[in-house]
Amino acid sequence: MKALAMVKAIRELAAARFALPITGIHGIRHWERVQENGLYLAKHAGADRTVVALFAFLHDCCRESEGSDPEHGLRAAAFARSLPASLLRIDAEQLARLTFACEFHEKGQLSDDPTIGACWDADRLDLGRVGRRPNPRFLSTERARKPSVIEWAYKRSRGLKAALKA
Helix, strand or coil for residue 163? Predict the structure, then answer.
């Protein structure tokens, strides 16, 4: 199964697993923006694009609340590990990065690992959906910290037209 088809299948499983309204603040539109943010960052950081795309659809799929849900990342990591190898066609190193990124994505940490950093930054760049502008101090990748990238992502997450000039 090619990477694009695999990511699409995982997206469908994540959506089926999601217990909250799929159009909510942690739902499908958020996941799609996280994927777009992450793939952009991955291109500039040398991150693993497959892991970044999978993270986008898995990181919040096990949420049980739109508010505080401190265990949702841990549940997302467990869900990722439970996916059959015939569907989740990634190696052990990719799975380790994916599950780590899911488990700790909302803990406020930074990462020197380009893939984990791109995952976390992709999610944090979408904070505008809840009225918060991303703070560059909490972004791991150089590209994500650029003011033009923060502004582009913020406007997109607020539903405003945004053009990236980076």
Answer: coil
* Cβ-based neighbour number of residue 25 at 10 Å: 16
Of 127, 95, 101, nearest to 115 by C-alpha is 101
Copy the structure tokens of residue 155. 């406007």
Evaluated on CA atoms 84, 102, 148, 23, the torsion sign reads positive
- Contact at 8 Å (CB) between 84 and 110? no
How large is the angle between the packed helices 72-82 and 92-104, nearest 10 degrees?
160
Please report the pLDDT score of residue 53 as a whole number: 98
Q: Which two tokens stand for residue 38?
A: 């992450």
Q: Can you list the residues of the chain whose pLDDT is less than 70?
A: 1, 161-166
Q: How many helices (H) and strands (E) does the chain have?
A: 7, 0
Concatenated DSSP letters of 123-160: HHTTGGGGT-PPPGGG--STTTTSHHHHHHHHHHHTT-
